[in-house]
Amino acid sequence: MDRIIEQYFDLGVMFDPDNLDKVLQGFLVTLKLSIVAGILALLWGLLLAVLRQTPGRLSWVVRWPTIAYIDMLRGIPALLTILLVANSLGALAATDAVTGEGGVIPTWLGVPTWLGEPSPFWYGVFAITLTYGAYMAEVYRAGIEAVPGGQMEAARSLGMSYRTSMRHVIVPQAIRKVIPPLLNDYIALMKDTTLVSVIGLLEVVQVGRDIQSETLNSSALMLGAILFVLVTIPLARAVDWLITRQQAQFERGLP
Amino acid sequence: MLLLEGVEKRFGDLQVLAGVDLEVRKGEVVCVIGPSGSGKSTLLRCVNLLEPPEGGRIVLEGTEITAEEFEDGVDFVRRRVGMVFQQFNLFPHKNALENVMLAPRTVLGRSGEESRSRGEELLVRVGLSDKVDEYPERLSGGQQQRVAIARALAMDPHVMLFDEVTSALDPELVKEVLDVMRELAKEGMTMVVVTHEMGFAREVADRVAFMDGGVIVESGRPADVLESPKHERTKRFLGLVLEG
Hints:
The structure holds two protein chains of two kinds.
Chain A: H1 2-9, H2 11-14, H3 17-52, H4 60-75, H5 78-85, H6 88-93, H7 107-110, H8 119-146, H9 149-157, H10 162-192, H11 204-215, H12 219-251
Chain B: E1 2-11, E2 14-24, E3 29-33, H1 40-47, E4 55-60, E5 63-64, H2 73-80, E6 81-84, H3 96-106, H4 112-125, H5 141-153, E7 159-163, H6 171-186, E8 190-194, H7 198-204, E9 207-212, E10 215-220, H8 222-227, H9 232-243
Parallel strand pairs in B: 3-8, 3-9, 6-7, 7-8
Antiparallel strand pairs in B: 1-2, 1-4, 4-5, 9-10
Helix pairs in contact in B: 3-4, 3-5, 4-5, 5-6
């Protein structure tokens, strides 16, 4: 029993000032990554959802590629997407060693270091945004479809264009309806940012693994797990609370 | 003002409008009555192109809005024709005043101040001066419908379409909505009213049109159509309605 406790909760390892500092720094990277990628995925997903709903005769030109994109990215494991983005961009930006031909994409995009963050951070942001944008697009779509048809008719009958109606009438209502599932996706996104450790980003899991291989003790990783739970459980409770509130409104027969 | 000639519409195999002719003059109130499924609502929805008609023509203020080459038909119509729905369709995320202000601001580009004062004025006019800041969920059906009327009026329509606007209301709330419509008629608004309120039709309409099977069976002065209908179908319908 003591062995088990020591393996996971060795306070000496956990709170060794050096380790603690590394783990907290790593978790800070995780938080930053999930906030940046989370915001981008929320926006990207909304754009995809709206494009997917484009009406009109020629709308398939927009709709089909959007649907194909959403299906693909939801079908590919996030880990694979991360690996497909990372280093590939760097390679595309690099000068060809044999032919001496310049990169096909600019260096600022191939090896991004914006805001002082290392390129693996931004590769992670791209990949997670691409993947979770697709998931969130489906959530938004459910919200848009849940807005009664009479709303669009009322807006259009007042002379508002399709775009204006979407912007001021449909989308605001759709977002209110899907905040709980979006938050759920956000929790999943946050956990999946740990996959970015495979491309060498020093986030909380990578840091914990380094300490684990040094000490053969899992307490630093466990500390990371505890930090996650401290953030995700309140979020999950918030989702529950929002759902209960919406349910109550629904039962009162309100929109 | 508004002229319909041979308007047709079908949903799949169902011929909903089988050639409707109707003329509405400026300032006139026309009530359209008839059994459910007779095409009354579809007729209104064709007039403001929520349902594009498939045959015939519709002329609004001298412009044929159904003409193929008239691409801005939808905008042209909706700037001139206001519509009120059976289910109110207020925007639930906006309060009464914001519901009224939204279209003038986004479509006509009016300033916030201008559309606010006009919006408040309209809400006073429909008797809701104390509900300006309330959200639809806190309003009764009758109050919601009056906000919906104010919202349509905010776009300064030349014609107002009313699609069974009291059918979803509790009986005691019907009068407050009809009173607003009565007032509007008195002020000279051109109105096409699809309704089951025979009393309202008799009192307010300049003309009553009876629809059945996708056509207007007969139309004329309220007294004539409602009290001494010529057609068998009109008689039968009125018999059923007035008995109840």
